Amino acid sequence: MFSGSFYALLAGFLGATASLSAKLSLGLLFACNAVMWTFFSKALRHSNFISSVSSAFTYGLLGRLFFGEAHATLWWVGISLTLCGLLVLHGSTPQTQPREEDKKEK
């Protein structure tokens, strides 16, 4: 029905919202965590790295909006480098071992 990217983005957003709600309301924390784990498990089937990245970016943005936290440029650079590394890992093709039949033919 939905793509894995949608589930991953939603799981990341809900994870950050759960963290934010821990400071505001305990019931909201449990509700967001329950829904976040549901979407996160669906996202794992498709694209795990998007959930990690969306969660980190959402933490930064929600911290800025609700609590006035300022993150250093180095923090944003670190998150961006993490995103680049995850994209490289996700985009790489798995290397398979040559079959024994192929080895015998050579």
Automatic annotation (TrEMBL):
It comes from the Eukaryota. The keyword Hydrolase does not apply. Keywords: Membrane, Transmembrane, Transmembrane helix. The chain crosses the membrane at residues 6-37, 49-67, 73-89. InterPro entries: EmrE-like (IPR037185), TMEM42 (IPR039632). The keyword Transmembrane applies. This is Transmembrane protein 42a. It comes from Amphilophus citrinellus.
